[in-house]
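Example (one chain per record):
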Amino acid sequence: MKPTVLVTSRIPADIIAVLDEHATVIQGTEETKCMTRDEVLSHAAGLDAIINQNELKIDADLLGKAPRLRIVANATAGFDNMDTAAMRRQRVWGTNAPDSYSADTANHTIALLLAVTRRLLECDQYVRSGRWKHDGWMPGGRWDGMSFTGKRLGLIGHGHIGRHVATRAAAFGMIVHHHTRSGASEPGWLPLEDILKNSDIVSLHCPLNDSTRHLIDAQTLGLMKRGAFLINVSRGAVVNIADLIDALRSGHLAGAGLDVFEFEPDVPAELMAMPNVVLSPHMGGCTAEARQSAWRVCVDNVIRILSGEPPQTQVFAL
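Predicted structure:
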């Protein structure tokens, strides 16, 4: 009997065809909407593998109902949905797609940087409103933004995405420094306090874990330069959203570009009302090419496990 693989959404037919040679595949009904947890649990007893988009909590409850499960493959770089200790106890591999979205997430980071520092949304709304025609040409500095040349960009997190951002920012003439807990020997590394105090823009690219949850709060925001900008394309809970709103409301921060939110998809009304905040719906790396790459990584990892080989992008060792 073939093993059974559950895919919580739908993936392209050519990629599924590869998996069909090795397993019976159960798919969700929509590409852009995942199965509910209850739907997954209804199949759990017969599953050998799960492919998901980081939306499915892999905890002791699910694992207890899936005794045959051998691998959970995330089609994302993140794996904060996995209870890694419980998975180790049950000898279930966890894998991710660590570099599929990196370049495009870095591009989105730069897009947020440009949008918020050059006030693109405000300018767009001004033109669309017809007020420009009414006000006439304005030679003054009403729409002046920030030039990147010579500005300091501080990256908190310097993995695949952070390194791509650094390359792109340097091309704009920015001075780039970074902070990670283990990267003190790398060129450009600075202590976290120095990153916060000296950067014109702070951009977050760290994973969410116990040490980074609410890393950016009232205290660390207070260390940032007055008039600095904050960009977050990592995980929402890295930032205490209430403290960020206070820093923006007070004028301490000049603006923010946010792709992720602490309680997403709920976004505070205060943020949505702020013209100096640019928002996107957790889609920083979302391109058709990146998504195809991530699915292929997942399928390859699943096939390797079903064939008795270790996966290539495991997030912990068994």
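Caption: Residues 4-100+288-306 form a domain with the Rossmann fold fold (CATH 3.40.50.720).
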